[in-house]
Amino acid sequence: MNRKELDPESSPQAAFGARLRSAREARGWRQDDLSRHMGISSGHISGVETARKMPSLGFAKAADVAFGLTATVDTFERQWREMQNGSLLEGYPEYVGYQERAAEIRVFESGVIPGLLQTREYAQVLADSAVQRGDITPEQADERVGFLMEQQATLVRTPPPLIFAVLDESCIRNVIGGPAVIDAQLAHLVEFAKQSSTALQIAPFAMGERKPFLRLVHLLTLPDRSLMSYVESQTQGHLDREMSSVLPLVKNYHQLQIEAASQAESVAMIEQLRKGTP
User: Fold this and answer.
1) Quick one: which of 1, 86, 146, 220 has the most CB atoms within 10 Å?
2) For 86-112, how does the pLDDT look when each residue is reduced to its tens digit (9 = 90+)?
């Protein structure tokens, strides 16, 4: 594919290459110049610019450093993640980029265990069921599970982020994947609760109308103490940094934590389920 044939609309990979070349030419750089800034061969850069080679995560991060885009909203890394994870809801790959740097993470979920706390087997069952419904392809299912495991791995750092998880009771009562899968998943929740940087609570059915949320809500506190939220519907995800809409969610989350069962009560509830008692 020569320069004239490159169509940014033809594929996400072509769009990435076209953007890289445009950014380079805007600086007045040749490929050799960009090679020195990125520490990557000019031949490889040429291959990415013409969509003959697929960029890696390391390549995207190196481009962000070269062009001064690291920690900005519109990074090459974000574009790479969106390109690799087309099966994910809009806004989620960008959210994950912020989550990797967050000092505090607050999560609420209803119906299923949230992704941050899922075992690989539990996540695979959910992805496979999406394939059976025709929502995603088998390849996208593998991408989804791999992305989730990578996301969890980024939270194993020093110091670790504080993670607060409040789960609707339906999360632990829905038997997903059969007895063995759900038992391992419940055991994983108990281990999560034992960590010094985590807190786990169950919002029981008895809370009824006092539950402020009906579906997934994520709240992040970044190192500079700024806040952001990520919420999902069945088909859309929305990342929000406007304090006028984020602060009410933070207030509601604190109220949820007050009303929900304590961690000790929540772990006892999970252990009862594992023993087969109601």
Assistant:
1) 220
2) 545 566 767 888 888 899 999 999 999
Q: Of 175, 92, 176, whose CA–CA distance to 127 is shortest?
A: 176
3-state secondary structure of 153: helix
Exposure class string for 179-208: b at 16+ Cβ within 10 A, else e: eebbeebbebbeebbeeeebbbbbbbeebe
Q: Which residue has the higher pLDDT, 44 or 82?
A: 44
Give residue 8's pLDDT: 75
Token pair in block for residue 6: 């490159």
Q: Rounded to the nearest 5 degrees, what angle is found at the Cα of 259, between the Cα atoms of 192 and 261? A: 40
Query: Quick one: CA torsion of 109, 111, 115, 118, rounded to 10 degrees?
Result: 120
Q: Residue 178: how many CA atoms within 13 Å on its side-chain side?
A: 5
Reported pTM? 0.70
Q: Do the beta carbons of residue 84 and residue 228 sit within 8 Å?
A: no
Question: What is the model's pLDDT at position 203?
Answer: 98
The answer to whether the CB of 127 falls within 8 A of the CB of 70 is: no
Instruction: Enumerate domains of the chain plus CATH numbers.
Output: 12-84 (1.10.260.40), 92-274 (3.30.870)
Confidence class for position 277, pLDDT limits 50, 70, 90: low
30/138 Cα distance (integer angstroms) = 40
